[in-house]
Design brief:
Layout (H helix, E strand, L loop, with lengths): L3 H29 L14 H5 L40 H6 L16 E2 L14 E3 L2 H10 L16 E3 L2 H18 L18 H14 L22
Parallel strand pairs: 1-2
Antiparallel strand pairs: 2-3
Helix pairs in contact: 4-6, 5-6
């Protein structure tokens, strides 16, 4: 019977031989596997941290650029530049949008410009001429009844003036007919509907009719845009 020491040595040698055989078999199998079928893994990668979104803290804003003032609308926080800006007062934007300028001192002065008056306002000789509107009696009255509009470019000229077209002469004849009927103590009412394309001169023609009425001492009631009555006239229920 062999001693126990020899048996332990034999068992250990057999274990080493079996482990070496298994390792060699696994290595041979790995070499026989195609390269494309083997799974490749990286031991270390920085792609995820590199492309991850940066989490910003709440309340943080970008610093203003140099030379640009920003308006800070948050309560209790001042603007970094020290200028919080000034908001326009109530109705200031509307007043600026509807502002009407009737004079321009930089425009050329036309010495030959003739004004309309009570005697020549209904004359047929005015057709095709540019006639000025008297400042004292007509321009102030037209402004009071909102006859001027912001889109009529009055600020391009030194003083308000209108071109007496054939339509204006037709309107002058209607005014003359009403005055003749009143002189004969007859009542005559004329109703007309003015229509036309956009920016064709309808509002300017109405302004010319109002100017004729003011020069002929008529009592004028104008409803601008047909939305509200002028100041001083009570609203009807």
């Amino acid at each position: 019977m062999p001693p126990p020491t020899c048996l332990r040595s034999l068992v250990a040698q057999l274990s080493l031989d079996a482990a070496a055989h298994a390792h060699a078999h696994a290595r041979a199998h790995a070499c026989a596997t195609p390269h494309l079928l083997r799974r490749q893994t990286a031991s270390f990668s920085t792609a995820a941290p590199r492309y991850a979104a940066v989490v910003k803290k709440k309340g943080m804003t970008a610093a203003p650029k140099k030379g640009i003032k920003s308006l800070n609308t948050k309560k209790g926080k001042a603007t970094p530049g020290g200028d919080a800006g000034k908001r326009p007062a109530q109705g200031e934007r509307k007043a600026l949008r509807k502002r009407i300028v009737l004079t321009n001192d930089n425009a050329l002065h036309v010495a030959s410009l003739q004004d309309l008056d009570k005697e020549n306002v209904l004359s047929s000789k005015n057709e095709g001429k540019v006639m000025g509107l008297p400042q004292e009696h007509v321009v102030d009255a037209l402004r009071a009844v909102d006859a001027f509009k912001p889109n009529q470019a009055w600020s391009l000229f030194r003083r308000p003036a209108v071109l007496m077209r054939s339509e204006a002469m037709q309107l002058a004849r209607l005014v003359h007919d009403v005055e003749d009927a009143a002189a004969r103590q007859e009542k005559k009412t004329i109703r007309r509907i003015l229509c036309g394309e956009r920016a064709s001169g309808k509002t300017t023609l109405l302004l010319q009719g109002l100017a004729m009425a003011f020069l002929r001492d008529w009592f004028v009631i104008n409803l601008p845009e047909g939305t509200h009555a002028p100041a001083g006239i009570p609203k009807l229920d």
